[in-house]
Amino acid sequence: MNARKTKQAAKRKEASCLRESGAVYTLGRRTTAPSDLLPGFDLIIPGVPQSDPTYAIEAGFRRYGLEGEDVFLALAARCVQESRGRHNGFEFFQYERGLQVLDLVTHDRQIDSILARVCLGSDAVGHLPVWYQYFVGRRFREGSGKFFTPRTVARSMANLLPLDAGLTLCDPTCGGGTFLSEAARLLNGTPCELVGNDVDRMLVGLTEAVLFLTCGGTQKRHLFCNNVYDRGPFLDAYSKRVDCILANPPFSLPLDSVGLRSTLFNMGYHNSDAVFLDVCFELLKEGGHLVCLLPHSIVVNVDYSELRAHVEREWDLCGIITLPEGVFYMTARTTTRADIIHLRKKTATKTAASGGIYFANAPTVGIPLNSRDTMSGSNSLEDIAATVRARGCVAGAADS
Ligand SMILES: C[S@@+](CC[C@H](N)C(=O)[O-])C[C@H]1O[C@@H](n2cnc3c(N)ncnc32)[C@H](O)[C@@H]1O
Fold this sequence. Notes:
binds S-adenosylmethionine; Rossmann fold; globular
């Protein structure tokens, strides 16, 4: 017993040294209601006193003085370990640091048994962005404009694109890589290039880990950590080279200046979501597709009528799907409304896809839209995306 206590004290001391060597983001006090379980944590662990594994894992790591980012890195590193995939080193994901944290706790059989369960299998990959938001959550919410897209929405949006072999698909503000990984799943081993960028280095690391766990060997991955509103290595490398963009840009961040040619900025739209359209225009090839979330106000408000007129001059409208309030409720506790906009960069000779323009309203997206929502199993967005595909509205550059 004494030997065990001494060992735990030594590990706690080691943990505090580890924390001092890097930035640590701790969680605020949290009360976790049973209905608030994280995906991937909703398992009952036999032999663990607490029936709530979220609590068990937090409490377990906290015994060693480990919280927040450290716990997330340990979970992510364990997922990589469990995948037994071949990896040649990560550029952004702090794998070594995650392993160091794991090393402090895996002698603890209770923690090890939880990790073995939650970090195994293909579902664990999809949970990584959710775990990131949970364990690094405070930092995430304080930085505005950072709402992760739920996987169900990302999957349907990817389904609206012509995912042909050899395509270059990009998310210029990739966050946790949900769009890229959902597209990679749909591509199912088909050769392609997946390009992600985010201004937040740790998020690029998360995308790197997620794509490592999702992609097949023929799916090349390229990651950047650039400000997308400035010219830099990312824009320089992919300007007019991208076939398809899937994105959810930061909403409503004020921009004082931009480092790329932006007609919308010059027209007086100095916000991140509006200028993002010009960023995508810069990246896409002629005929390239953009499927992205934008604030509902851009689609309907009179303040944006000149923006919409400009968009009609440069892009062909393929479709708009309005989403219900609460799409980001579970990931960011916000009721900000967003719509899916599908545009295609005009070409000199070709017109819009032969299937015509689609307009639809999706009242459900397969997740709870508020804390009382009991209809979360229903997903009308998925049906809409399937119908759009079946009607031939999803055409590649070569199809029309
Ligand atoms: C709304 S989140 C979406 C993340 C991810 N695409 C998703 O859908 O889950 C917006 C992302 O934009 C990133 N971001 C904010 N400003 C940026 C900038 N100037 N350049 C590149 N990325 C930026 C944030 O770090 C955040 O990850």
